[in-house]
Every structure is written in structure tokens, then in C-alpha cells.
Queue: 2 jobs
Job 1
Amino acid sequence: MAITRQVITSLQRDGTDMLGTKSLAVKIADESIVSGSLLTVESNHFCVLKSRGAVLNVYETGQYALTTPDKPLVGSIAQGFFGGASPWVFEVIYINRSKLLVRSQGVATSAEMAEMAYQVDYYIHVDTKEAALDLITHLPFNGAEIDTKEVADYAGPAIEQAINQIVQVTKMENINEHITEIRESVKGHLTEFLKTFGIMLNDLKVLIMPKDERMRELISLQAIGLTPLEAVRYYLALRMAEKGLVSAPNAACGLPFNIGGQPSPIYNVGAETGL
């Protein structure tokens, strides 16, 4: 925050915006913010002015002179209780109107109880002054700001519930066939959840894959037309090829490995590869 000659602004001394691309709201509480100070609101912000817990006004783009409430404490009362200093302390909250990217991640279980990792990327923004009030009313500050990580933490259970409703009754290999249905379910749940906080959901992307890397590779091999048994053999052959073993093609074909034209007396792929 930069305050020069009683001007309050969200722009820092180097010209950068203090909200950036990760902060949804930033709170400024400073004794130097007094009646008569000039409040500057950028085109991509809302600004909420509070005093002693009460909302005094919500501002859009422009510059405004701050004034005390209609009935300030003056005279002998202020002199006696506050030593002559004004008891009014202003609190300025800037709210980001720009579209912000939020990412939520978690784990769901398929019909076979296999763990499926999911990632949901979505864009949010605060659209109106009323929505800005809803945001600071229902979403608490953890310090001086509300960032996209906090939004992701709050929205996480709603996203997890929407995904599990479909994933838990779907076989792992068929989950991607239902990705559009899952996306619409998440979008509906998330839209209703964020509305309480004055946050508008713009668009989202859902990605679901097996949590285990080995399982992801096996499913990828089946996707090119291999049977489950062939996928296992090809997976084994790929791992053997990475270790430089000449018997990798034999593992892929399911054939024994011959030495000097004679079948090897002992062929233990597991022992040879360490897999």
C-alpha cells in the first residue's frame, strides 16, 4: 500500500497492483487513513469502506474523499474518552474484479475402490457491489487478504462430493466416458456454493486419472487396442527395454528367450528385471 499526501491506493510504489492475480481481497487498516483522505479505486477493483465494524460505503472506479459518519463523536465526549483524537478508524478493503484462476485437487474412488486423482481448474470473479459485500461478509479474512488458495480450500468439499457421486459408481476404465457428466455436476454444485460468497463461476475444466502411475500406463496401453494381458506384457517389455535387457521383445510377445538357439533352462523375468 502507498499513502502519499493522504491518498490511499492499491498500487504500490513500483506501479504493481497489490492484489495481483492470486488475491481476491486485501484489507488495509491504518491509523493514517482519516476523514479527508483520498481513496483511489482502480478499474478492476471494488472498494469497501468500513469503520468500527460497520460498512460505510462500497465504491466503484474513481477517486473519493473519505468522510466521517453522519454523527461522529465530537466535543467534550471525544476529548474525554479519546484524548482529543478522532475515534473513527477507517478500514479499506479492495476486492479484485478480474477473473482469477483457481485450482482444486483431490482423490476419488472408482467402483472397484481404485484411487483416482482429479484436478479442477476454474475461473471466478466478483461482478457487482452487492457481491463484494457478500464476499467480505461470508468469507473470513485469514490475515490481511483472501487469496485463491483459500477459495479452493472452501470449495474443495463441494467439488469432491460432485465428483464422487458419479465416480464411485463407475468402473475406472469407463470414467473418462462420463467426463462431460462429471463436469456438469461439478459446475452445478460449485456455482451454487460460490454464489453464497458473491463469487461468480465462469468456466471450469475437469481432469481425472488413476492416482497410481503404473495403472495410468496400463490403461493407456489398453486404449490403443491391447487386451489387458497384452497391456501387462507390453508394460513389462517397456520397463525391461529401459534397463537395456535384450529379452524385452520376447516379453512383449510372450515368448521364451533363447540362448544360442537353445531355450534358456531358467527364464525368470521377475528375477532378471528386478520388477
Note: The helical segments are 75-82, 129-138, 148-167, 179-195, 213-223, 228-242, 248-253, 269-273.
Job 2
Amino acid sequence: MQKLPLRQSLEIIRQGSLNWVAGRPIVVSFEVTDSCTCYCRHCDHGGPKDDSRNLRPAEYARYMQTLKPCVVQVSGGEPLMRDDLEEVVRHIKQPNTLPYIILVSSWSLMTPERYLRLREAGVDQFSVSLDFPDKRHDEFRLVPGLYDHLNDVVPKCAAYGYDDIVLNTCITSANLPHVNDNADQARKWGVNLCYSAYSARRTGDRELFPTDLVQLRTQLDQVEQRRDGTNWLVSAPTTLQHTREFFENNGRPGCKAGLRFLVVTADGMLQPCSMHFRRYPLEQQKRLVEEFTMMNQCDECYVAIRSNLDKGFWQLLGENVKRYFPVGGRAKAANC
């Protein structure tokens, strides 16, 4: 991943620090639609839904003014199903270059032309789901031809040279033997890669939770051995270590959902995360923290949004300065 412009880096540090002190979220995930093109085995979304109550693009500005996150995930469902997605992004982006916007998508509907339009609208990073480095990806998501589509469109978009595409592999028992094969695929396509952890809480399917700890350690040890100066593995070493511990311990306590991060549903309600469905109006984020975060005993997930925030302030700041911010040298970070 390319390092961020200095102005944007300083704004993220400033706003993130203010939010940490004020008890506002660092990251907000806007689920802009519940509809999806996929029916993934590890996800509780899937297929078309009633989108009649989705927030309109202009309504997102009010959420930004109130919550003031320095990072936003735009997700779903499948966000690319919204024809007005570019307008949604424009109303999320602020004049001071914040927030850093990550579009989370299967890329089943992505084209090079839309990739460029979304970049122009304000998307800083494209997170592309990849479960398998071959056509088993189609079977896992029940979308025939999806892998071939990615094999065509991802390299085409990467060829523009913006270095803003990150494959995300959610580690499950099904793809555990292929954790490093997906890293090879990222190399082949000329893009970056991160890992996240499957949670059985989302679907209730315990069979997808990895239990072969020997293979887990072997695969993640190999991941660590592959790091180099190109920064193509963007999962921090501490994040991967904590992910390993999550699987080994069958959980990880101490979640700060609702405080450090939260979800805004497609119809505009606040949720602590995508797997706890206590809903609050925008003006009641502090009540959400009091009633949910401070009482939360859930240890059942270590998804990407949590794993990248589940650290102390100085560690979180230091890791992100090293990874993304233009401090200390080269155009790309030496480690991730």
C-alpha cells in the first residue's frame, strides 16, 4: 500500500486522537445496503432484500457531522448494487480529506470504469474478498464465474498503479490450507493482502471455525516469513498474532464495539457491530456505549474492523504511522 499524503495523515492522527478522548468511534462501517449478489457460506447476508428504506446519499453527511470518524468502511451486503454509490461516497468525504474510505466488496459487479469513478468520488482503498485462489471461490460464494471475473478485473485495475487494492481472506476451516496460496494470488495480480477471522456467531456454522491448530500455526508462520519491503501483506504482525490466539482460545474478550467502532445500518440505525443487533438512533451513541460496550462480554469474533483497533492508543498510532503515513522515508512502508 502506498503511504498517505501528509495532510491526510495528519488529519487522521488529529481526528483519531480527538475521538479516542471524546469516546467517539475511530471507524464507522456504513452498511449501505442489505442486498448482495452472493450467498456466501460464512456470511448471514445473501441475495436481494428490501432496500426501500436505505439512507439516501445526502443523509450520510449528518452521520459524519455527528460521529466524526477518521476511517469509514462502506460495505453491505454488496455496496456496488447501489447505482448511487459514488454519490454516497461524495457525501461521506469531507473537505479536509477525511475520512479514509475503504470500500468492502466482492467485486462481482466491479469494472475498471467504475473503479476509476469511485476513486474520483473519494474511495481510498478497495477491499476485495477472496476465499480461494481458484474456482472454489465461486462455489463458496455461490456465484458462477466470480473467480474468472476477478482474474480479469483485478489485474486491470491494479495496472493503473494506484496501489489501493487489498484482497481480504477470511480464514475458515475450508480455506485454511490455502492461506498462503491466496498470498501468491495477490502477488500474481499485483495487489495487497490482509487476513481476517471467521466467526461462527455470524451464521451458527461451527464447522467453518478452524480447529487444526498445527496447520493454522504453519500457515501463519509462513505468512510472517514472506514479509518484505513491498508492504503487500497489510495485516500487522500483532494483528496476525492476535488472530492466531483467537482461534487457539476459541474466542477473544475485551471487545470495544460501539466505542472504538460501530455499524450504521442501511436504514440509518447504530449497531455496536454487524453481529449484535441492538439498534440506537444516531443521537444515542453514548447510550449505546453505556448499555452495550460497558457490559459486553462477547468474545466470539475477531473480524478485521475489530482486529485493527483492538490495541492501545500508542500501539495503534505507532503501527499505522509505520504502515501508511509519510514518516520515516520511502514511498511504501517497510513493514505492515
Note: Residues 6-324 form a domain with the TIM Barrel fold (CATH 3.20.20.70).
